[in-house]
Structures are given as C-alpha cells and as structure tokens.
Write a structure and sequence with these properties.
This protein is an alpha/beta fold and 278 residues long. It has 12 helices and 9 strands. Bound molecules: ligand C2E and calcium ion (3 copies).
Length: 278
Amino acid sequence: AKEVGRNTYEFYEAELNQLAIRRHQLANELRQAIKNEELSLVFQPQLNIKANKVIGAEVLLRWHHPILGNISPAEFVPIAENTGLIKEIGAWVLDNACAKIAECQKEGIDIRLAVNLSALQFRQVDLPESIASVMQSHRIPPRLLEVEITESMLMRDVSQAIDILERLKEMQIRIAIDDFGTGYSSLSYLRRFPLDALKIDRSFIDELVVDADDTAITLAIISMAKSLRLEVIAEGVETAQQKEFLAQNNCDDIQGYHFSRPLNYQEFTDFLKKRVDT
Ligand code: C2E
Ligand code: CA
Ligand code: CA
Ligand code: CA
C-alpha cells in the first residue's frame, strides 16, 4: 500500500509539473498569438423568447495554435489575466468586436454585441475613455455595445465599480452581470449599480426542471431581476424543455446550443439574414 501511495504521489507531482510547463508555454506563445493572427472571435446569438427575435450576440474569443490546435478560453484567459497579457488581448477583442458591429451595419444589420471584460480590464480607470475612443474610431452607436462583467468584479471595490459603470452608462453602453448567482452580491448592493441585465449562470440551467434547487434558484433570480427592472437572460440553454420552462416563467432571453452554437462571422451573418428572410 505504501508503494502505491508513493507512486500516486509521484504521478500527481509529474502531472502538476506538466500543468506548470504547459501554462508557462502557453503564456509565452500567447504573446505572439495576436501578432501571428491566431486569435479570432465567434458570435453566439441571443434570442428574445416572446418576440422570437435575435436581440444580440455574445462575442467569444478563440485561439488556434499552429501546433497545439484549439485552446479553450477557459484555459488561456486565466493565464492571460495572470500575466497581464489580457490588457492587450482585451483591447484587441474590443476593437475587433466594434469593427464587426460596423461591418454588420454596412450590410444593413443592426446587431448588438456583448463583450466579456476581464477583472484587470475593469480595474483600468481609463476604461470608459478607451471604449469611447474605439467606438468613435469605428463610428458605431453605443447602444450596440454591451459589456459583461462578473459579480466578483463589482464587489472587489464597490465605489470604483459604481464610478466606472456610471461613466459607461452615461455613454449609453449596456451593462450585464455575467455568471449571475455564483457570486455573493446582495440585493441592496445590486441596486446601487446602473445595470441593464442579469445572465443566469449555466450551472443552474444545466439541470433546470430536473433539479429542484437549481430550479428554485433560477426562479428566484428571475423574480429578483424583475423586481429591479432588469432584463434577464439564461445562458447554456440546451433543450426545448429548458426553453419552455424559462418562457413560462418570465425569463426574457436565452443563449445556448438549443438556439445556436457560437458561430464564425460568416456563419453569424448568414444566420441573421436567414432569420430575417423567413
Ligand atoms: P462565459 O462568459 O460564461 O461564456 C459562455 C461559455 O459557455 C462559452 O464558452 C460558450 O461557448 C459556452 N456555451 C454557450 N452555450 C452553451 C451551451 O448550451 N452548453 C454549454 N455546455 N456551453 C455553452 P467558451 O467560449 O469556451 O468561453 C469560456 C469562458 O472564457 C467564458 O465564459 C469567459 O469567461 C471566457 N472568455 C471567452 N471569451 C472571452 C473574452 O473575449 N474576454 C474575456 N475576458 N474572457 C473571455
Ligand atoms: Ca460571458
Ligand atoms: Ca457566463
Ligand atoms: Ca461561466
């Protein structure tokens, strides 16, 4: 048994080393990724259930490494955050998302895009000004840009967060709280932020209807959002049953594989045009 224990330990140690090595490698290669044009954006459409209309799309980052293949943002975004590279990458995402909004407008498509902000980006006090200058350079109306931030980003420094959000709001940018329900923000705090929407975290939607607790939490979030006059969107909706339940319980919008997977730009504009035609 002792022998097994030691081998297990060595196995874990080896695995940990491999993880550290991979992280180090990815951090180095991420520096080149923008220059080498290995990063791209995909767009996941969001549906307003009642109107049966696409109301916007979330912008999601993709990294195709020439040797390692596709690397998930769930793996590389935290690395980018730890190394500070997220500042450059976040700026790239914002610039490209605004370019796509402008491109869509030229094609006669008025579509709102939601961009994920990282904690480090959100802490930059000149964030509102830098967003303003990107929007101006692409000549896009601010109502077509939404930012997604998490509860923990709000709670870290509440007064600074209020200040930044109020400046974004003055610019008429839409603000959504991402992964809602996984943090610990209280109702009284939420009221203090100028928010537009809550995104119910995927973890509650996964077992919606099946799991009593997840169902109760989802219903509570919807009713809380409504009482604060916020729009509410459920993410990770994969089945018709989940959509039906959300529709019957006053959830405004859905996003998830049931409606559409994240699409590349060409697929995305085709998707939007097809829906207008029918
Ligand atoms: P997130 O912001 O919660 O994004 C939603 C994730 O759920 C995306 O994963 C999306 O592809 C996935 N998803 C959407 N619908 C479904 C569904 O029906 N079922 C399941 N199982 N998954 C679904 P993705 O693209 O891998 O992104 C992972 C995370 O990486 C994001 O979570 C976000 O935190 C981060 N991320 C992605 N792009 C960016 C970015 O441009 N900037 C920053 N700071 N973070 C980003
Ligand atoms: Ca998000
Ligand atoms: Ca989310
Ligand atoms: Ca998430």
